[in-house]
Amino acid sequence: MKTYRYLKYYYLKFLRLKGEPQELAIGMSVGIFIGMMPIMPFQIASAVGLALLFRGSKITAILGTWISNPFNWFLLYYYNYKIGAFILGLSEKNAIFSSIMTAVKSVEDPMVIVEKIFAGGGIVAATFLLGGLVMGICTSVPSYFVFLYVFKYIKSWHQLRKERGKRW
Questions:
Q1: Radius of gyration (Cα) for the chain, nearest Å?
Q2: Which residues have a Cβ under 8 Å from the Cβ of 26 and sit 6 or more positions away?
Q3: pLDDT digits 0-9 by tens, 48-92
Q4: Is 64 in contact with 28 (CB distance < 8 Å)?
């Protein structure tokens, strides 16, 4: 029962987000873009910075970064490297990559994972970042349009309920 109350609470908070649909969708898209990047400990700060730059909602930018979480870090990092290695024409398997993926799989501290990536040298870091950039673009552009529709729908629903005089 307690879980249901928490879910309902956060669902209602999401519905009550303030701002124009475009601003909210930009924020969510920026957050999803940054969430795809392999910069775990810096995602929220980066998302807020980009939201400020693109005049998006800071709150939805933070929410968007939650696309990367301990349940899918392994897949994100794996595909970041594979895509980056493909683009750069590098070998997809090496000891450094295996070491990083072991650290991600065992859910080590995010700073340890970032240190391992940069300890692998510039080419390894560039491979992860390039893959993250490609994945970020491929997911954030469609997410902008999806969330623009969602936030427009929520706004029109709010207007309709306001006209009818009903409250939550």
A1: 19
A2: 51, 54, 55, 56, 57, 144
A3: 999 999 999 999 999 999 998 878 888 888 899 999 999 998 877
A4: yes
pTM score, two decimals?
0.83
When divided into structural domains, the chain yields a total of: 1
Say if 11 falls within a structural domain: no
Quick check: is 9 in a domain? no
Q: What residues contact residue 167 under an 8 Å CB cut-off, 6+ apart? A: 161
Please name which of 36, 43, 20 lies closest in space to residue 158, comparing C-alpha atoms: 20
d(CA 37, CA 81): 11
Please report whether residue 5 resides in a domain.
no
Q: Is 67 within the bounds of a domain?
A: yes
Structure tokens at 151: 């936030």
What pLDDT sits at residue 24? 92
Structural domain that includes position 37:
20-159
Q: What is the DSSP letter of 42?
A: G
Residue 167 confidence class, pLDDT cut points 50, 70, 90: low
Question: Cβ-count burial of 148 within 10 angstroms (0-12 exposed, 13-18 middle, 19+ buried)?
Answer: middle
